[in-house]
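Q: My labmate handed me this sequence with no annotations at all. I'd like to see what the chain might look like in three dimensions before we decide whether it's worth expressing. Could you predict it?
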Amino acid sequence: MDRRLLNSALERFFHAYRDARYQGVVITAASEKDLRLVQGQLEALMLDCDLWSAPGADGAPDIPCSRRAFNDQVLSRRQRTLLVVAPTEWMLDWPEEDRSAFWSGVADLYGRHAVRVLAVETPELSRYLRIGFMRYRLSGTEVGLWLSRHEPIDGLQEVLQ
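A: Here is what I predict for the chain of 161 residues:
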């Protein structure tokens, strides 16, 4: 994956999406290697965000962590954008209903702070995301962008495929 192309596509997407009502966005990569590449580009673009890249680091909750505690920290109003990398690490012992509730909460982030979630796209994850999100592809890349089903994509055609 070309880093400059990825960086440019992500920058264009975030610029176009800044006024969206539903601010929960899930960004998916095909592999762990691609996830790390996308993570590096997101960190470079989102210098003023809170980054949770591992449980217990940089203000992120430790594990084990209940869904209620995790959701409270992720979905409550924040001053800055939150980037959560590989949230399934916090969900290791969560039942299916709790996992589903988390993803629905991200899809329903209406008019609140921005939450960006980065994960490796797996069949299990896609099954959860299909409930509240629509999948698009970041223009010119293989990166998946999952946007709330409620968010109109007018004005995003140039940055989505």
